[in-house]
Design brief:
Elements: H1 5-13, H2 38-61, E1 65-69, H3 83-97, E2 103-107, H4 128-131, E3 136-142, H5 147-175, H6 177-180, H7 186-193, H8 214-234, E4 240-241, H9 245-258, E5 262-267, E6 272-276, H10 277-285, E7 294-299, E8 305-311, E9 316-323, E10 326-333, E11 339-346, E12 349-352, H11 354-361
Parallel strand pairs: 3-5
Antiparallel strand pairs: 1-2, 2-3, 4-8, 5-6, 6-9, 7-8, 9-12, 10-11
Amino acid sequence: MKMNYYDRIRALTKSVPVELVDFTKSRDQARTPTQASSNFITNKEQGDWAENLITRAINETSNNFVAVKYGKSDDLVAGEDGFDAFYQEFQTELDKIGKRPDLLIFNKVDFDTNLGFDISQIPHDQITNYVKKAVAGIEVRSSAFLIDRYEDAMQVRTEKFTQIALQTKEKILAEFLDVLQHPNRQNYIEILNGITAKTLNVTDFRTPSWSSSERLILVKELFGQLKTAIKEIQKRDYLSITPKVEDIKVVYKWIETFNVPHFYFQVFFDKVYGISFEQILKIISDPDNDGVLFSVETDNKNQNKTTIKINSKSGVSIASRVDEPLHESVRKEMGRGRLLFYVTFKGGCAYLDIENLQTILEVKNNDF
């Protein structure tokens, strides 16, 4: 008997390492933010723009499907009157039904024109049956990068520091071998001999602290240069689709509630990539993918929350081209006369890769 969507997801959660996500534990309660920053509001504006970009692209392209705003959001930010009540209501809903994806995709025959294109402010218990009719829920994430430019730059960086590392290694062995042949330093010869273009991404050593002679100081400096080059090579070299660890549980809760397929769309300023929540669970369930297809990092740009960063190329191209939006500065006055200046985004266009979108959403070719 073929399992339904929720049953497949539930089975996958049992294979996710508890070191990454422990589905048996209740989610940690979040503290209410107390003060917004200009950077936070700009990121929120960018996220709203990305969500609107995907909504317009689907609604202007599809003959049979409709994108509807669904995610819980508000124009209020931390520090404004009413934000605390909104935030606590949001937390209560997370425990009740899980985290609403930003968008829902409906067949046009199921689209309720009376509710319209924005149901984000409607209490969940009034639209439960309607939400269950959706064919997909989409969490839209945004990234302030041009992914093609980034990948070109990372390739240049890797080639540059690989060359520096290998040249430095050869210089040490050619000019300072006598220094390293001392019994207390011979281990460094073995380390250097093990360094190749293929092993640089896993090589590590302690930089020596020698300083008792001019030649020891010189070779110590070369080891420092080698260490620096290796660190650059070992940095993550891909842009990612970024589900937060804390969101994995509440996304699962939403799927448990509605049994609607869930997806992440990562919007860059030149392309859009998408991946299913099901595929995310498959990727992080396999330890062999750790450090290859995904990494786990503490994101200091997002309140130091632990984030799973999945290589965007593990997903599929949803839009092969994006026209950049217009942007402008906005002045916002907070309490006690505090001023925030942030950036808003308007316009832009995503050119959907229809075939890939149909594949990821499992829509027949002649239906979209």
